[in-house]
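Researcher: Let's do a round of design. I'm pasting the structure tokens now; please hold your answer until I've finished.
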């Protein structure tokens, strides 16, 4: 009898636990559904979370003039527990993945992922380009964060990678009290439309021998350009690439892009760089491996046009130096990305935004932890805190654009984790970096 009674109590307990779990899920779904101007659906996502949800926030195209119309902004939520912190992955583009990011895994947090306005599924029916500003995007993110803070009441951390890192900074500039801590990864802080610090970086990064091999490779490509153009034509037909700028200019741009890409990604060993006596086929194969021609292809440009518009009008970009190769190419000045702008849209750069953000970073910004890779080309325009010790910056020795906290040497990892522990007032198991 005792065994039967025990089994009965065990079954009742398990049923109660299952019911409690179902109630918690239902309660969360209900709470999310009750948020204003939001539609939500439970979906299959990263299974390391206890639940995964897709939300669509109705956002005004212009937060200062709601009558102008609205669009739907895609947001993903990976739920662990209401009592845990929330990491907000702020995207600079579209949402690339539903996987948990480094920070949410490190601190065992919930994760909110916000797609950037005007990218992929978060686009108005008609793109009003003048409403694609860092201020409007920050207001989008503020709306989402404030809505979810009604449900998740623990610590809040924003983070983003590359342009997502930039967007994280801009959101914090406009709404410094939205979150407790921010961790932008490899985020440029460009101060001009074509920031020439990029040129200075490429002239001094790494060692002299590697820089010489890179330049010699670029020269070899220019010298054999007549042999490379047919190879590009063949590739374009295979990949269905269209180049409005023409095959020759696409080739010129990609040869110039090679040095930027080499140091940005660090996935090409200097020993792999073909010598000047290499065949056109070997030169072309290496060039396409290091720097994809899709960057200059019409369909890809259309997909990334919101980025190019922002870069050329507000957040800054870079140009290609012509002078080191003027013997081989005939352009009167450095090559810019004006060809990527939407037709009929003016690309006048407004420096005031970046100047204001830069001043704030050097004076009032606090509890922002910046992550950079030393060799990454975008580190040329990394944030200069100018003595603001309320924030911290860590530069991974010889690191590339793929630098993450786990990329750092052990002692620097410990210092980063200690900083986060202090700012978040919580213990962090740094061993989780190894398993990430």
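Researcher: That's everything. Go ahead.
Model: Designed sequence:
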């Amino acid at each position: 009898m005792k065994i039967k009674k025990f089994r009965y109590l065990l079954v009742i307990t398990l049923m109660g636990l299952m019911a409690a779990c179902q109630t918690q899920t239902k309660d969360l779904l209900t709470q999310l559904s009750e948020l204003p101007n939001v539609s939500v659906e439970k979906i299959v996502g990263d299974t390391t979370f206890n639940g995964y949800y897709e939300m669509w926030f109705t956002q005004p195209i212009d937060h200062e003039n709601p009558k102008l119309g609205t669009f739907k902004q895609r947001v993903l939520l990976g739920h662990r527990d209401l009592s845990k912190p929330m990491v907000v992955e702020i995207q600079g583009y579209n949402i690339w993945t539903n996987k948990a990011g480094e920070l949410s895994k490190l601190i065992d947090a919930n994760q909110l992922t916000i797609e950037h306005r005007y990218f992929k599924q978060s686009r108005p029916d008609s793109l009003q380009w003048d409403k694609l500003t860092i201020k409007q995007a920050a207001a989008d993110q503020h709306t989402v964060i404030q809505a979810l803070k009604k449900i998740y009441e623990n610590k809040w951390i924003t983070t983003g990678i590359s342009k997502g890192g930039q967007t994280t900074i801009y959101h914090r500039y406009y709404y410094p009290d939205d979150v407790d801590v921010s961790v932008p990864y490899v985020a440029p802080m460009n101060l001009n439309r074509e920031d020439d610090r990029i040129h200075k970086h490429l002239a001094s990064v790494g060692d002299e021998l590697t820089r010489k091999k890179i330049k010699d490779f670029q020269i070899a490509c220019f010298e054999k350009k007549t042999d490379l153009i047919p190879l590009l034509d063949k590739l374009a037909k295979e990949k269905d690439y269209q180049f409005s700028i023409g095959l020759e200019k696409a080739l010129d741009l990609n040869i110039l892009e090679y040095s930027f890409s080499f140091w940005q990604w660090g996935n090409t060993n200097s020993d792999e760089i073909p010598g000047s006596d290499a065949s056109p086929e070997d030169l072309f194969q290496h060039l396409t491996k290091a720097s994809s021609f899709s960057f200059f292809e019409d369909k890809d440009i259309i997909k990334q046009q919101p980025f190019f518009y922002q870069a050329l009008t507000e957040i800054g970009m870079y140009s290609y130096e012509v002078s080191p190769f003027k013997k081989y190419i005939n352009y009167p000045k450095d090559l810019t990305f004006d060809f990527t702008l939407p037709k009929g849209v003016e690309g006048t750069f407004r420096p005031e935004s970046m100047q204001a953000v830069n001043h704030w970073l050097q004076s009032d910004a606090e509890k922002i932890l910046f992550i950079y890779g030393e060799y990454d080309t975008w580190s040329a325009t990394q944030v200069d805190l100018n003595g603001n010790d309320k924030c911290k910056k860590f530069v991974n020795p010889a690191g590339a654009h793929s630098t993450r906290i786990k990329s750092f040497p052990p002692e620097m990892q410990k210092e980063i984790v200690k900083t986060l522990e202090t700012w978040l007032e919580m213990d962090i198991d740094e061993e989780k970096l190894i398993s990430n």
